[in-house]
Amino acid sequence: MEKIPGVKYMRDFYPEEMRLRLWIEDHWRQASLRAGFQEWDSPIMEYLELYARKSGDEIVGQLFTIAPRDADAKDDKRMAIRPEMTPSLARMIAARQAALPKPIKWFCISRMCRSERGQRGRLREFWQWNVDVLGSPDPTADAEVISVAVNALSSMGLTSEEVEVRFNSRTLSAAILAAVGVSSEQQPGIYAALDKRGKIPAEALREMFAKVGLESAVVDRIEEAMGCKSLDELEAFASNQKLSGHKEALANLREVERALALLGAGDWCRFDPGIVRGLAYYTGPVFEIFDRKANLRALAGGGRYDNLLSVVGGQPMPGVGFGMGDVVLGELLKDLDKLPSSAMELDDFVIPLDDERKWDVLEIIAALRRAGRRTDYASAAGNLGKLMKRADQLGAARVVLVGGDEWTRGNLKIKDMKNRTEAEIAVKEFLTHPARSS
Amino acid sequence: MEKIPGVKYMRDFYPEEMRLRLWIEDHWRQASLRAGFQEWDSPIMEYLELYARKSGDEIVGQLFTIAPRDADAKDDKRMAIRPEMTPSLARMIAARQAALPKPIKWFCISRMCRSERGQRGRLREFWQWNVDVLGSPDPTADAEVISVAVNALSSMGLTSEEVEVRFNSRTLSAAILAAVGVSSEQQPGIYAALDKRGKIPAEALREMFAKVGLESAVVDRIEEAMGCKSLDELEAFASNQKLSGHKEALANLREVERALALLGAGDWCRFDPGIVRGLAYYTGPVFEIFDRKANLRALAGGGRYDNLLSVVGGQPMPGVGFGMGDVVLGELLKDLDKLPSSAMELDDFVIPLDDERKWDVLEIIAALRRAGRRTDYASAAGNLGKLMKRADQLGAARVVLVGGDEWTRGNLKIKDMKNRTEAEIAVKEFLTHPARSS
User: Fold this and answer.
1) Hey, is the C-beta of B146 within 8 angstroms of any chain A C-beta?
2) CB–CB of B213/B186 below 8 Å?
3) What 3-state class would DSSP assign to A341?
4) Strand residues in A117-223 grouped as ranges (E)
5) Which of A18, A263, A377 shows the shortest C-beta gap to B366?
6) Does B68 touch chain A (CB under 8 A)?
7) Chain B contacts in chain A segment 327-386 (CB below 8 A)
8) Is A94 on the interface with B (CB under 8 A)?
9) pLDDT of A328 strictly over 90
10) How far apart are alpha carbons A24 and A120 in whole angstroms?
11) How big is the A-B interface in CB pairs under 8 Å?
């Protein structure tokens, strides 16, 4: 019979790959818990309407939708697999908004699907870590979510020489663009162009600017603003150009920067006026995380979204957060040779030396497991060389041999696989203190 | 704007519920790892064909299928959300069957969906723990998977007085049925009837037997066999009735029973000839786990399936395993008041006593988090009573107060929330040894 393949652009997690996924998830989880965030989750699917209302068109076009059971099923009950978590977050918070103590500090580690074209760093199923603070307009909240991302990356062995957080502010960009002569109708087109900056040739970028209908003098001023490498440079530029209207947003972003330094993330972060984020719902500071060699797509992206709750029928509430996927992160860790060993680890492997002892083996493994030791066994006697090789394959720290002369003497033989030493120990004593080797 | 609800018969996991889900998952995972099983996972969806080939009709009727992107999409590329893990397990093992060291001992903790009618113990999205051994025909493998289930339940605080494993053997049932005069064509109808035993009135059961076309003398003998409460009783019955053909299966099940006792699970398990399992693919020992009061649906079910790999195009390979869902288990733990506290836990909550100190707070929380402590903070000074209440809400073990006279002296005030004691400590010393309270 023909074999059936797994679904294309989705991954099978054999134990080796699963250990790596769990390793990443664990670092995400621990960094979140250390910062006082609480884990949440939503169903794998939501009513389609939730995505239609909140997300950009790009994401709605990538939805896996559920086939309706009945041909005449109502449209408003159609469902889709979640392509991101923010709509579910907004829905769940809106449902209990008054009752939840503020600020709401939540994280999730979530499976999601998008029907995109498969390519490097893009799969149709992936895991995303989301960290959000809702109910705090304070710039320390922006800095805190960034520092949680940095702490997780740092705990995985990545350094500020390998990874950087580029931050900006949508409010600041809007104020600067308005001051240099971009109308509010032209702004979305400019953001779309800025989002492509560095990803497409300078020529093509100028064409995008031209399409929006900007005079070349305005484009030059935008390019100059884009060239600012720090908030000081931007302030000097604004002062030279006698711009106004940007001061509040600048002061806010300076506070975010100050908080980042105090939280120990200063070396990881730099101001980059080119970061604007595609999604329409960002309203303040925004950021993206990249590998410094910029070989890969963004590791993470996020920002402040103060209008999100209103969109799902909740009360207005400030919010800030980010999402980090597992795919690009996994590639970066692999490229930098920072993935941990994916080998299995076992404490004990128990082998019967003759078939009569197979029943005694069961009592021994039960005692070892009760003592919390990770224990596997051979269900029958066999070629000892092969069985020892099996123990090695399983990463066993110790092998317990049941049978032979030792058994006749009421003893077990214990082999330490690391030090390659052996010891003989009485069965009774071993069952009472299974962690002792001699 | 109107609020959008979550999908019906699926659960939102607010942090309290999430902590309980993770608690259950952790007990499942630890019991599996202690027994030397390795974790795996598959995509949330598979090609429809995989389920059509392996699963019973009941499950295929409950699939959530993905709407095709193009109206003329080929049928063989249609996908469905996984309703169980066994088909994915078989597919993944078949793909690497020769290369995987045997026995293959795998477990998974998996989200899955079925479009069933919602009711107590049945939701449309749930988590299931699967534990499987492939490549071992040995009865110790059957006993081992059962003992892993028992160990997990025991680690959650359940006892053999509250929960029991009822085991039987499909081979044994088939031999007994054949010996008392049931033809192999009649057997599926009998299994369907036996599966309803105890769930429907005796009258209705006799009708089901009658429909299969059995003489009432045969039904009487089946009822007598069903009344056997142990393997000894069944053996005596077979001997009285001068039956033959059942001895091999009986001997095999006796070995499973012996292994269960040696693994310390004897008190939890009893032979029950009424356990036959609905699914067609079981080929040997089968079992289900129930609360002893039998108020709820089965907690888990499983058995031996030696033909599964062949169905997905693999080589024949013996297998045994079970699935345990989170919904019924959660209900039982709740009914027995054995769920752990779902309250949040925090090590430190740091409060600025005046707004100038909000920046110093950031340095302190960064140091605490670097030391591995779960730390949250107030981003601004405020009503101290309210902030202390917030610390309590968050389950903080300690509160660190930054400001006031202590700050002027270069110190911090530390409040131990359990013992309700206070101490003053130098900022420098605290930042060097953040775990020390005095």
Assistant:
1) no
2) yes
3) coil
4) 125-134, 163-169
5) A263
6) yes
7) 344, 346, 358-359, 362-363, 365-366, 369-370, 372-377, 379-380
8) yes
9) yes
10) 19
11) 243
Neighbours of B116 (CB within 10 A): 15
Q: A309, A94 in Cβ contact below 8 A?
A: yes
| Sheet containing strand B319-325, strands side by side | B38-39, B104-113, B125-134, B319-325, B300-304, B285-291, B163-169, B269-271
CA distance A295 to A130: 23
Cβ within 8 Å of residue A223, ≥6 positions away: none
d(CA B377, CA A138): 12
With CB atoms and an 8 Å threshold, state whether B366 touches A262: yes
> What's the residue count for chain B?
438
Phi, psi of B170 (to 5 degrees): -65, -35
How many CB atoms sit inside 10 A of residue B340's CB? 12
Check CB contact under 8 Å for B64 and A66: yes
Select the more confidently predicted residue: B184 or A47: A47
A120-179 pLDDT tens trace: 667 999 999 999 999 999 999 999 999 999 999 999 999 999 999 999 999 999 999 999
Residue A38: pLDDT over 60: yes
Q: What is the pLDDT of residues B21-55, one digit of tens each?
A: 999 999 999 999 999 999 999 999 999 989 987 66
In tens, the pLDDT along A177-186 reads 999 999 888 8
Whether B277 shows a pLDDT value over 90: the answer reads no
In whole numbers, what is the pLDDT of chain A averaged over residues?
92
